[in-house]
Every structure is written in structure tokens, then in C-alpha cells.
Write a structure and sequence with these properties.
This protein has 465 residues and is an alpha+beta fold. The protein is 47% helix and 15% strand. The chain has 16 helices and 13 strands. Keywords: Membrane, Transmembrane, Transmembrane helix.
Length: 465
């Protein structure tokens, strides 16, 4: 068998074995285990209803938005009240300090729609429908970050660096049959130094959701299942409406989080509405529906998501000569079938990177200027860290900007600094969290941006009148 086929087969086997091992270990470690409910009790703990909803539903958010809204009402941050047959909502004042990220997200959504004036809940739901699924998805992620901060949820990945390094060393052996004997050691050492990097990238792209409940989290979940049992024992509470939060305080919020108070949850209905591709805009003077095409991440083809045009241009500029060299070396392969396969792959890659390089160059040399109104702002990506109690640092946002020219919009990617993150140099972790999570723009702001037409990265952003 030709050495090329032997090396290629060996490399494929190593990568497949590595990914299979990582997937198996993470699946075993994160497998859901039955939690024995504690004794029925009315005693409430300090975890927020959103975190409780995750704990008792195997880290799958089912009622995070509704439970958080009711909890804010119980804490007198917002107000829910009935007038006739309608339920109204309003905020009681400016955003209080100390709210968790998921609580701020719900508060800001209510404040954006209602402000300090009461509006029907139906109107809030209609506005929530714009970007609702994406908004709810990030709400669940932020609740999970809070659970991590409290030590209720954790990741166990200590085995991954060792397996990646071992697999990288084995992968380096694949090049040995392809080089002269005198250069085999140098080639092996070179590949061994870098072979683990793509394995780490594959791990991040293909193996997700490694969180699992810690011992502390399992104990908390058992307690809250006991609270759920106590609430279910009081049948008269099951049909409480959302406005009953004024009487039952946080019990109603926790009852919704524990999927006990179905009537209140169905009345709020936060979880069943929302289209992330439709928004209403009155930029042209007449209210119209605009459709938004969000980028869909491909874990295999584009595991890192959207990339700045300059980074794409550099990568393509490096890849084109590399694939050209591979094509040149492939002409010396003895097997006609293998030679043809390698040449076809190299040709496709050359065309692909040539196209990406041309588009990247156009983005860099011919930036696009847009003046319009911000319709919506959502979090695009975050960087998980564990410094000073901070577990999630936003790295970029999606800005939906409407200039009135078209009814089909594509989000702009705005990094944290351009979005208005404050500069903070103090030692207070809470102040640092508030600074890095600050967004200096709001829906309704009129802005002028200069960005890249295809990659959608914004290079400059400022308000205009």
C-alpha cells in the first residue's frame, strides 16, 4: 500500500479515536443521574428561580424567562397587576444594583417596552417575539453562568489536555513514512509540537455541553424538589394567576420554575413565543416588518463562527501557497487514484481560499458606511473566564441597524469596546463586571457605522442625530 494512504489512514484513525474517547468520557461524566427529592419543605434557599429551573430540569431551561419576571415582581423591581381582563406590567424605578446577568436581561426587556408606564403583558409578548428565541437562548446561558459561579454546576475537563497531547504525538507519527529517513526526526518533532492544536479545536467544535451538577448542585436540586413536593400538596395554589405574586411573593416564581404552577406559566407564555428573524421598524415613518438573517454557525466547516475579514485574508494568503505546494508534491505520487484525489482536493481548496481572499480584500479596501437606527442588540459571543469571580465576559454583540433601504437585514458584529464597555481599573470585582458588561447603545439610537460588507465586522461606530 502507498505510504500516503498508510499515513492518511493512520491519521484518520488517531483523530477518530481521540474524538470518540473525548465524547465518551464527557458523555459518561455529564450523564444525568437521578436525584432523590428531599423532604417536603416550604423553606426557600438563596438560588434564583432561573437557576432552580436549570437544576431540576437537567440543565435545560424550561421556564427561565417567566420565573425571572415573576421573581423581579416579587422583589418589587417590576410590577404585575390586573385591570379588568388584562394583565399589565411596568418597572418601578431605575435598574437596581446587584442583579445577575439573566435578571438584567429580563429587566431591560421590560424597561425597553414598558418603561415606568404600565402596558398590557400582551404588548410585552409581541415585542418579545422580535428576537425572542435568540434572547431566550442567551437568557438560559446566563442562568447557567450564574449556576457555575455559585458552584452548583461545573466542568471536568482535566483529561482533555493529556489526551490531546498524546493523540498529537501519535498523529505526528503519520508524517514519518512521507519524508526521507534523515528528516523524519525533525518532521516528527515539528508536527508533534502543533498537532494537538487542531484536536483542541475539534473538541470545542464537536463536543459541547460538558456541564454537570456538582455535589453542591445535587444537594440544592434535592432540596428544591422537596419544595416542589410541598407546593404540589397545596392544590389550591395550582391555579394562581401571575398577579398573585403580590400576595405569594417568591413562592409563585419558584413554583413556575419548578413547573408546579402551570396556570401562571401559561398566562405569561414567555417560552412559547418569539421569532429571531422578524422585527418591527418605523424608521421609514411607517411601521413595517423586517426580516433578519442571522449567521448560522457550522461546527464542522466554521467552528469559530464569523471571522474578521483581515483574519480571513491572512489565513487565505497563508493557505494558498501551502495548497499549491501540496498540489506540486502530489504530482510525484505513484498511485494514479491517490494522485487524482489529492490534486482535486488541492484544487478545491485553492478555489475556496482564492474566493475568500478576494472577498476579504474587498472588505478591507472598500468598507461600507451605514447610517440607520438600532432595532435590537443581542449578545453574540462571550469568553468564559474564572477571574475575580467573573465567569462570562461578553466579547461581541449583534447590532440590528435599519437604514430604511431594505426589508431584509443582516446583523452587524460589534466588539465589546465599540459597544461601549467602560474602562475600569479598580479592584472591585462587581464594578469590573458592570464595566465589561456595559453596552453604551440602546434600541432606538441613530448611529453611523463603518464596517465590512461580507464579514459584517464593524470597524467604527458613533451616534448621530
Amino acid at each position: 500500500m502507498p505510504p500516503v494512504l498508510l499515513s492518511l489512514g493512520f491519521a484518520v484513525l488517531v483523530v477518530a479515536a481521540h474524538l470518540g474517547f473525548v465524547w465518551l468520557v464527557t458523555a459518561v461524566r455529564s450523564r444525568p443521574r437521578a436525584i432523590v427529592a428531599g423532604a417536603a419543605t416550604p423553606e426557600l434557599r438563596d438560588e434564583s428561580p432561573a437557576v432552580v429551573n436549570l437544576l431540576v430540569n437537567r440543565l435545560r431551561p424550561t421556564r427561565v424567562a417567566s420565573a425571572t419576571l415573576l421573581d423581579l415582581a416579587a422583589r418589587r423591581v417590576v410590577e404585575l397587576f390586573a385591570a379588568g381582563d388584562e394583565l399589565f406590567v411596568r418597572v418601578r424605578g431605575p435598574q437596581p444594583a446587584g442583579l445577575a446577568a439573566h435578571e438584567r436581561r429580563v429587566f431591560e426587556r421590560v424597561a425597553r417596552v414598558a418603561g415606568d408606564s404600565a402596558v398590557p403583558l400582551e404588548r410585552l409578548l409581541q415585542r418579545h417575539a422580535g428576537g425572542g428565541r435568540r434572547w431566550t437562548g442567551w437568557l438560559g446561558r446566563e442562568a447557567r453562568f450564574e449556576a457555575r459561579r455559585l458552584g452548583l454546576v461545573g466542568r471536568h475537563e482535566r483529561f482533555m489536555p493529556v489526551t490531546a497531547i498524546v493523540s498529537g504525538a501519535l498523529l505526528a507519527l503519520a508524517v514519518v513514512p512521507l519524508v526521507p529517513a534523515g528528516a523524519a526526526l525533525q518532521a516528527w518533532a515539528c508536527v508533534a509540537a502543533f498537532a494537538w492544536l487542531p484536536l483542541f479545536i475539534l473538541d470545542a467544535a464537536l463536543v459541547d455541553d460538558r456541564d454537570r451538577l456538582t455535589a453542591q448542585g445535587r444537594a440544592a436540586a434535592a432540596h428544591w424538589l422537596g419544595v416542589a413536593a410541598w407546593l404540589r400538596a397545596h392544590e389550591s395554589l395550582r391555579d394562581l394567576p401571575p398577579e398573585a405574586v403580590a400576595v405569594w411573593d417568591r413562592y409563585l416564581a419558584y413554583g413556575v420554575a419548578l413547573d408546579v404552577f402551570q396556570h401562571a406559566a401559561q398566562s405569561l407564555d414567555f417560552e412559547t413565543v418569539g421569532r429571531d428573524d422578524e422585527l418591527w421598524s418605523d424608521v421609514t415613518g411607517t411601521e413595517r416588518l423586517v426580516r433578519v438573517r442571522y449567521w448560522r454557525r457550522s461546527r464542522i466547516l466554521a467552528p469559530l463562527g464569523q471571522v474578521d475579514a483581515r483574519a480571513r485574508l491572512i489565513w487565505s494568503a497563508l493557505s494558498i501557497p501551502a495548497w499549491a505546494l501540496i498540489a506540486g508534491l502530489a504530482t510525484g505520487i505513484g498511485s494514479a487514484g491517490v494522485r487524482l484525489a489529492v490534486l482535486l482536493l488541492a484544487a478545491l481548496q485553492l478555489l475556496r481560499h482564492g474566493y475568500r481572499a478576494a472577498r476579504g480584500a474587498y472588505d478591507v479596501l472598500r468598507p461600507l458606511e451605514v447610517t440607520g437606527t438600532i432595532l435590537d442588540i443581542t449578545l453574540n459571543s462571550h469568553v468564559p473566564v474564572d477571574t475575580a469571580g467573573i465567569t462570562d465576559v461578553p466579547s461581541s454583540y449583534y447590532f440590528i441597524v435599519d437604514d430604511g433601504r431594505t426589508d431584509r437585514l443582516t446583523p452587524w458584529l460589534v466588539n465589546r469596546d465599540l459597544a461601549g464597555a467602560r474602562k475600569h481599573f479598580g479592584n472591585d470585582p462587581q464594578a469590573l463586571v458592570a464595566a465589561i458588561r456595559h453596552v453604551g447603545y440602546r434600541p432606538g439610537d441613530r448611529v453611523r457605522l463603518v464596517g465590512q460588507r461580507y464579514s459584517r465586522y464593524v470597524r467604527s461606530l458613533r451616534r448621530v442625530r
